[in-house]
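Quarterly update, task 2.4: NAI-bound model.
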Amino acid sequence: MNTFEIAVIPGDGIGNEVVPAALRVLEAASEIDGGLSFKWTNFPWGCQYYLEHGKMMSDDGIAALKNFDQIFLGSVGMPNLVPDHISLWGLLIKIRREMKQAINLRPVKLLRGLNSPLKNPKDFDFVVVRENSEGEYSESGGRIHQGEEEIAIQNAIFTRKSTERAMKYAFELASQQKNHVTSATKSNGITYSMPFWDDVFQDVQKHYPDIKTTSTHIDALAAFLVMKPEVFDVIVASNLFGDILTDLGGAIMGSIGVAPAANLNIERQYPSMFEPVHGSAPDIVGRGIANPIGQIWTGKMMLDFLGYNEIGSLILAAVEDTLESGIKTGDLGGTATTEEVTNAVIKNLKKRS
Ligand code: NAI
Ligand code: MG
C-alpha cells in the first residue's frame, strides 16, 4: 500500500467548497485502486487567517509543507478583505518560489459534453508547459525620476538552466503523447531573450530527433489557438507568454471553472502544488454552486504526477460522462449544485472501474 501525505490548503472563497468535493473524488479513486491511499492534513491559511494573525500562513509554514509529498490547494484571495498583492504573494507565490516549482503545467482539452465557445471545434487536446520561475516575471528593474522625465525599466531574466529545464520537460512530455513540441517565441521583435530562447530550443531538440518541432511567434500562436487548436500537442512558453496562452486555453474549453493546473518541482526535491486555474470567485461563494471540475481535474493531475495515470484517466472519463449526461453547474449553463456534480462524478467513476 502506498500512502501519500498531502497538505491541503482550501484557501479562500469557493476553495472551501471545491476542495472538499475533489477530496471525495480522490478518496473514491483510492478505494478503487486498492494499493493507493491518502493522508490529508488541513491548513487553515488564507485571508481569514490573515485577519486573525496578520500573515497569510504561519511562520514555520514553508518548513512544515516540506514534510509532505504534495500540496493540494484551492484558491487564494478575498479582495474586499485583503489586498491581492498581499494575499497572493504571502501564500501562493511564496510556496511556488520557495518550493522551486519551476514548471507550470496546464492542459487544454475539448471535454466530451462541454460546449466550447469556438464554432464547430475539432477535437483539441494539448498541454502548455510554462516556465514558472523567471523570464518576464523577474524582480529586476526600477523606476527613476518623476513626471515627464519618469523612466521604468523591467528586466526579463532568462537563464540557460531554467530555459532548458522547461524545454526538456516539454520534449519528454511530447514523447509520451503526440511527439510534437511547439515553441512560443518572439525573436522577430525581442532582440536578446527570444533569439536566446530559439538557440536553446534548437540545442535541446537535437536530443529528441523523433519529435516534430515548430517555432511560432506568440502573436500568431494566440490566433492559432482560436483558429486551429487541434494541431497542438505540447507548447513550451516563457512565463508571460505561457500565462496569457493558458487563459486563452481555459476560455476555449468553455469555462475557467473546469481548467486545472500544476506547479511542479520536477526534481522532486520539494513537494509540487496542484491548484486549479480559477480564483476564489467571491461573487458566487457560499451558494453551493461552484463548479468542482477544475479542482477534480487538478486532483487527476496530482495522481498522474504520483504515477497513478490509469486511475487519473478514469477520473477524467467520469467527469466527461457527467457533463455528457447534462449534469452541469451554472457557469456551463446547467442548474446542478457542486454536490450533485461531485456525486455524479463519483458514481460514474465507480461505474467505469
Ligand atoms: P475568479 O477565477 O475567482 O472568478 C472569475 C469569474 O469566474 C467569476 O465570475 C467566478 O464566479 C467564475 N468562476 C471561477 N471559478 C468558478 C467555478 N469553479 N465555478 C463557477 N464559476 C467560477 O477570478 P477573479 O474574480 O478575478 O478573482 C477573485 C479572487 O481570486 C481575487 O482575489 C484573485 O486575486 C484571486 N485569484 C486567485 C487565483 C489562485 O488562487 N490561483 C487565481 C485567480 C484569481
Ligand atoms: Mg494568469
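Highlight for this quarter: The CA atoms of residues 5 and 333 lie 37 Å apart.
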